[in-house]
Amino acid sequence: MRLQALAAALNLSLTDLPDPQVRGVTHNADWAGPGDVFVAIRGARFDGHNFLQEVQRAGAVAVLGEGLPDGLVSPLPYLRVPDARAALADAAAALADHPSRALRVVGVTGTDGKTTTAWLTRHLLRAAGLKTGLLSTVGYELPDGQLRHFPAHFTTPEAPQVQRTLRELVTAGADAAVLEASSHALALDRVRGVDWAVAVWTHLSREHLDFHGTVENYFTEKRKLVERARHAVLNADDPWTVRLTGLAGGETTYSAEGEQADWSASEVEEGVNGLTFRVTSPLGEFRANLPMIGRFNVANALAGMAAAAQLGATAEQLIAGLASFRGVPGRMELLAAGEDLPRVIVDFAHTPPSLEKALATLRTTTPGRLWVLIGSAGGPRDPGKRAPLGEVASRLADHAVFTEEDCRDTPLDDILREMERGAREGGQGTFTTIPDRAEAIAWIIGQARSGDTVLLAGKGPEDTLERAHETLPWDEVAVARAALAAWSTPAGQ
Ligand SMILES: CC(=O)N[C@H]1[C@@H](OP(=O)(O)OP(=O)(O)OC[C@H]2O[C@@H](n3ccc(=O)[nH]c3=O)[C@H](O)[C@@H]2O)O[C@H](CO)[C@@H](O)[C@@H]1O[C@H](C)C(=O)N[C@@H](C)C(=O)N[C@H](CCC(=O)O)C(=O)O
Ligand SMILES: Nc1ncnc2c1ncn2[C@@H]1O[C@H](COP(=O)(O)OP(=O)(O)OP(=O)(O)O)[C@@H](O)[C@H]1O
């Protein structure tokens, strides 16, 4: 697209504008390259206008911004826009040729459950035969199912990445996409210009008030997704839903807690290998098996099913899809269970509250002993949580193992001593310390017996393990599987 056509797409009437070819658009000076338009955003910490020389040197062809600061002369053609973030999103959508119009896009928002519901929905849509992509906190996937990562870690990245990924999906022949929409993304226009077929609402609770100020503001930002969608899937168990009713073109409700709803669950049974429940729905009544741990996943499953049904999935496809769902990588990921093996779970819980929640959930379905392996990161990242992590692990599990977790420039011994202190002062004091993480995993799995649960916490899906002088490639699931393979042979017991 040429610059003048882009200006026209943004409703800017400009004369005397040069007309170079535009390759892309970016808000980040470090990412600017030849042929890019740079959008100068005045953020909370920086003013993008400070980087104009830098983007010119990188080969950018023009700048969009809300106005040059006094005394600054732009080295590139400067197009003034009323709202820089909106312009970034509109330019990104125009340059990608509005890919969401060629897809059926499901957006998922809510305080908790976005990632799980997004992954479930994309799995159910695939089970229904739709080629489906995904943009989520854990990464993004084209319909080939391979997980990829953006250069910066976001739930919802900035608009150019959103639009480029949607375009990649269209090029790859996708029919549908599932996209996690965070409240930050909705507030900062990262998903402006996305054409939403369905908005899924999980639930809202107090969070991110540092950014939004009040719960009401937080709700107002999240509500935008429902307002913009052709259809909404709303949680009848969430008190905020009454204020969302009637905002989308059409709507479906769901309830995991016995409220009146289109999709509801009853007879919920939590087992060692997952959940079973009866579903009452517009597609009829059926029994569902979901190989996931945690009762809250019943609500996520109902939301995912209602969204997939909206795009045409049948009851048979949903039943088969739920039963074959492998979970979200590194989030309560169930590796093994059964008569003979201990149940092993990999989860990224790395804060005292999230570890507490994970252990409490697992306790309810552990007939034997509950084991946990946990470390704590080095460097400046919240050293105050080391003792509380040790305390929670030792208080809620029958036995804790303390080990390394990205210790970086902090002596590992210092971290482990703090965790041990927490375990002695507030926990049961039943722990073992094994500094090498692979050895620790082999040991804890070797100790566990059938009927026990082993939670390997902290790393989840991360692919490196950082030590003081080396960064190792890491795959917690693979290390755990190797330990389980050793366990299952007589020599390993
Ligand atoms: C609170 C928040 O979301 N802030 C976002 C906001 O930052 P900001 O307004 O402070 O921007 P800034 O850092 O002052 O920069 C202003 C402009 O200068 C540019 N810049 C800045 C420095 C530089 O060297 N070069 C440069 O080009 C920036 O790219 C930006 O365009 O705009 C920036 C880019 O435009 C985002 O990178 C930044 O995300 C920060 C890093 C962040 O941590 N966001 C988190 C909280 C977030 O978005 N989280 C949600 C999930 C939340 C959840 O549900 O858990 C998410 O979707 O990931
Ligand atoms: N429907 C739900 N209601 C309440 N809590 C939930 C629900 N689903 C998941 N959770 C809890 O929230 C945690 C995070 O789940 P998930 O990753 O799906 O949420 P999220 O909204 O994507 O959060 P994040 O953006 O931090 O990944 C889970 O481990 C679980 O403890």
Per DSSP E runs of 2 or more residues, the count of β-strands stands at 23
Question: What is the second-level CATH architecture of the largest domain?
Answer: 3-Layer(aba) Sandwich
Q: How many discrete domains?
A: 3
| CATH fourth-tier homologous superfamily of the largest domain | Mur-like, catalytic domain
Give the rounded overall mean pLDDT.
Answer: 94
Predict the CATH topology of the largest domain: UDP-N-acetylmuramoyl-L-alanine:D-glutamate ligase
Helix content: 25-40%
| Ligands, deduplicated | ligand UAG, adenosine-5'-triphosphate
Task: Present the secondary structure layout.
Elements: H1 3-9, E1 24-26, E2 36-40, H2 52-58, E3 62-65, E4 78-80, H3 84-95, E5 104-109, H4 114-127, E6 132-136, E7 139-141, E8 147-148, H5 159-171, E9 176-180, H6 183-187, E10 196-201, H7 209-212, H8 215-228, E11 231-235, E12 250-255, E13 263-270, E14 275-281, E15 284-290, H9 297-310, H10 315-323, E16 333-336, E17 343-347, H11 352-363, E18 370-374, H12 386-396, E19 399-402, H13 412-426, E20 431-433, H14 437-447, E21 453-457, E22 464-466, E23 471-473, H15 476-488
Parallel strand pairs: 1-2, 2-3, 3-4, 5-9, 5-10, 6-9, 10-11, 11-12, 12-13, 17-21, 18-19, 18-21, 19-20
Antiparallel strand pairs: 6-7, 7-8, 13-14, 14-15, 16-17, 22-23
Family: Belongs to the MurCDEF family. MurE subfamily.
Main location: cytoplasm
EC number: 6.3.2.-
